[in-house]
TrEMBL record:
PROSITE patterns in alphabetical order: FE2OG_OXY, LYS_HYDROXYLASE
EC number: 1.14.11.4
Protein name: Procollagen-lysine,2-oxoglutarate 5-dioxygenase 1
Membrane topology per record: Peripheral membrane protein
Stored Pfam families: 2OG-FeII_Oxy, GT_PLOD
Protein's UniProt keywords contain Acetylation: no
């Protein structure tokens, strides 16, 4: 009996639950009844973002005010917005369907985070005919605070940037609007809400817990991103709600831009960037003559390393040069020769080139304003590509990539090697300076890849010329009494509501450090091994150095003598020229006050590295590039590359043609040939031959330690080009290296087993860079 009663009760409960659910389904508000109404007098970047999010969820949007002049004032700082109420009132008068549900929201700073279905469900649960967004702050009249109804939990104050309701109720609410366009819509709706009779008649409530609307002003600490199942929501952690509409009201435009990089699914962990390939401008179908004309503005504002390399890369940029115009502003006299050389040798390749030097006495701000204006006033100019001299563009397709992105302002992300520094800011501090956004490190390190709306870009970016002729037509974009030119420019761009983007969809390059760059030497870039090690390696280390082990490039011309590439031709030339420029060669006598003890047993004609203040850089070179090879070839041997003596030797027939057999006072020695044989010098050999290692003869000799010291001899000469004669002879093995390859290194045990001499130089000048190295 009890069991029968229980089954009967269970059946009744299930039936009741089914009927309740069916009743809810029958009364669910149909999505086709919802109409989104917004005001947009012009198409801005923010408006296009709003439409994209609305399209994502299939909202039906009616746009009011298109093409009209905005007279609603700048209510970022002062009350305004009455024009919105006027336009809304006029539009509602034409609507007759009493079941119509109207969602009236701003658009320039709004993003949809979820669907009409969820929005209507939450509206229905509010059990009122009109629901306004809520705020923690009262504005514009704080004296009305006490008149606002108290709420049990949540925000008390009305926000006019978003509300939803039935057509008749909203018509009633705006029926009495007679204000001017520049009067406050917020104050108008607030006075209706705080009037108990009107509030009851229209049946208004606030979305106090941000279930429908999330206004960001005053609530930034409450809102976080929530990533889930291939979509992104904004979560209010204070009320544990997921708002449907996110509004960057007031001074929170940067925050809505940040959230808009993700919401609703612009970027997710599952899909990556889903909008980065939208609205691209393809160049592939265009003839070269049809490519957009780009003016490249090159700005040299301080002494900068590797300027010659910059211009070499500019020439390699994959873009038709007859569709490029160059504006070069050079504030540094030191770089004048490099700019002139580029202009004379390559200027004719470009459609036009304009150079302004230090003699113009134009500061950085004025030069950038001028660059923009040259493009602005050139009817053929389609883009301005701003490029600082310290930018290293490794990607030859950078310009094409940026143009195809089809954005108003877009920068390729570049970073400083080994650091988190980049050419964009993810956020701003309260006073408008740098602040780190939550996603900054992930973007810089490539953990998140996409095209990002950011508040600040610098150093290298592309601007549409149409923008310079419209929203950015003000000549003094870079001027500010308190901000530097880049910050002033970005501030002015943000105030116009224009979005700036940075893309890390490709690897573009890096930016040089210009700190501590000295201009007191002939080839100052040689001293950049600490400040810009990657660029130093690109310029001065042999192209095959990184392939030494992988491609087995180490040769064995004599027993226990290893031969491998180390320096580029440019490095060899620069070292030789630097030493000749210094010019204080030693006399080759035994007495030498430059060394400890003042006596040299085997003197040479040389210049020590410390005489040109290069000893620290030389030791860094040894540690980075010589020590790893030494440790590979001699397992178990490790060196700190302590170098008591570094110098450059000069051999001349009438000065010092050869060096007698000797041991070096070092654990191992590095000897680098700095020029080439048969052009610079000649020699005769007592014994000239090369030991050959082949698989069927002598394929290898196992590297090993014995009771000896070690020598590294790096040849910087090339036989047949720079000199004749010369070389190195190992007496114990009766083995000679006659023609050291320019930029290659010889490594061998030195103190005991490899008794060696320098062979005669018979013509020209031979240079060898030598290091005595101890563990």
């Amino acid at each position: 009996m009890r069991r029968s009663s229980f089954l009967l009760f269970s059946g009744i409960f299930v039936c009741a639950l089914f009927l309740a659910l069916s009743h809810c389904e029958e009364h669910r508000l149909p999505e086709e009844k919802l109409l989104v109404v917004t005001i947009a007098t012009k198409d801005t970047d923010g408006f296009r973002r709003f439409l994209r999010s609305a399209k994502h969820f299939n909202y039906t949007v009616k746009i009011l005010g298109r093409g009209q002049k905005w007279n609603g004032g700048d209510y970022m700082s002062a009350p305004g917005g009455g024009q919105k109420v006027r336009l809304l009132k006029a539009a509602l008068e034409k609507m007759k369907n009493v079941d119509q549900i109207i969602l009236f929201i701003d658009s320039y700073d709004v993003v949809f985070a979820s669907s009409p279905k969820e929005l209507l469900k939450k509206f229905q649960q509010a059990k009122h005919r009109v629901v306004f967004s809520s705020e923690t702050l009262i504005w514009p009249d704080r004296h009305l605070e006490d008149k606002h109804p108290h709420v049990r939990e949540g925000n008390r104050f009305l926000g006019s940037g978003g509300f939803i309701g039935y057509l008749p109720n909203i018509k009633e609410m705006v029926a009495n609007w007679t204000g001017e366009d520049n009067e406050s819509d917020q104050l108008f709706f607030t006075k209706i809400y705080i009037d108990p009779a009107k509030r009851k008649s229209i049946n208004i409530t606030l979305d106090s817990k941000c279930r429908l609307f999330q206004n960001l002003h005053g609530a930034l600490d409450e809102v976080v991103l929530k990533f889930e199942n291939g979509r992104v929501r904004a979560r209010n952690v204070l009320y544990d709600t997921l708002p449907v509409i996110i509004h960057g009201n007031g001074p929170t435009k940067l925050q809505i831009n940040y959230l808009g990089n993700y919401i609703p699914s612009a970027w997710t962990f599952e899909t990556g960037c889903t909008v980065c390939l939208d609205d691209l401008y393809s160049l592939t179908a265009l003839k070269e003559s049809e490519y957009p004309l780009v003016m490249i503005g090159i700005f040299i504002q301080q002494p900068t390393p590797f300027v010659t390399v910059f211009f070499e890369r500019l020439l390699k940029l994959q873009y038709p040069k007859n569709r490029l115009k160059l504006f070069i502003y050079n504030q540094e006299a030191h770089h004048g020769p490099q700019v002139s050389s580029f202009q004379q040798n390559h200027g004719s390749l470009y459609q036009d080139i304009k150079v302004m030097g230090p003699e113009e006495e134009m500061d950085a701000t004025a030069s950038r304003n001028l660059g923009f204006d040259l493009c602005r006033n050139d009817k053929d100019c389609d883009y301005f590509f701003s490029l600082n001299i310290e930018v290293v563009l490794k990607n030859e397709n950078t310009l094409k990539i940026l143009i195809e992105q089809n954005l108003p302002i877009v920068a390729p992300m570049i970073t400083r090697a080994g650091r988190l520094w980049s050419n964009f800011w993810g956020a701003l501090s309260g006073d408008g300076y740098y602040a780190r956004s939550e996603d900054y490190v992930d973007i810089v390190q490539g953990q998140r890849v996409g095209v990002w709306n950011v508040p600040y870009v610098s150093s290298v970016y592309l601007v549409k010329a149409s923008l310079l002729r419209s929203e950015l037509k003000d000549y003094e974009l870079f001027n500010s009494p308190i901000l530097d030119p880049d910050m002033a420019y970005c501030h002015n761009v943000r105030n116009k509501g224009i979005f700036m983007y940075v893309t890390n969809m490709h690897t573009f390059g890096r930016i040089l450090s210009t700190e501590n760059y000295q201009t007191t030497h002939l080839h100052n870039d040689l001293w950049q091994i600490f400040e810009n090690p990657v660029d130093w390696q690109d310029r001065y280390i042999h192209a095959n150095y990184t392939h030494i082990m992988k491609d087995n490039l180490i040769e064995t011309p004599c027993p226990d003598v290893y031969w491998f590439p180390i320096f580029s031709d440019v490095a060899c030339n620069h070292i030789v020229e630097e030493m000749e420029h210094y010019g204080k060669w030693s006399g080759g006598a035994n007495v030498d006050t430059r060394i400890q003890g003042g006596y040299e047993n085997v003197p040479t004609i040389d210049i020590h590295m410390n005489q040109i203040n290069f000893e620290k850089e030389w030791q860094k070179f040894l540690l980075e590039y010589i020590a790893p090879i030494t440790e590979k070839m001699y397992p178990g041997y490790y060196t700190k590359c302590s170098t008591p003596l570094n110098f450059v030797v000069r051999y001349k027939p009438d000065e010092q043609p050869l060096l007698v057999p000797h041991h070096d006072a070092s654990t191992f020695t590095i000897n680098i040939a700095l020029n080439s044989k048969d052009i610079d010098y000649q020699a005769q050999f007592d014994l000239a031959f090369v030991v050959r290692y082949k698989q069927d003869e002598q394929p290898s000799l196992r590297p090993h330690h014995d009771a000896s010291t070690f020598t590294i001899n790096i040849a910087l000469n090339q036989v047949g080009l720079d000199y004749q004669g010369g070389g190195c002879r190992f007496l114990r093995y009766d083995c000679s290296i006659q023609a050291p390859r320019k930029g290659w290194a010889l490594m061998h045990p030195g103190r005991l087993t490899h008794y060696h001499e320098g062979l005669p130089t018979t013509a020209g000048v031979r240079y060898i860079a030598v290091s005595f190295v101890d563990p």
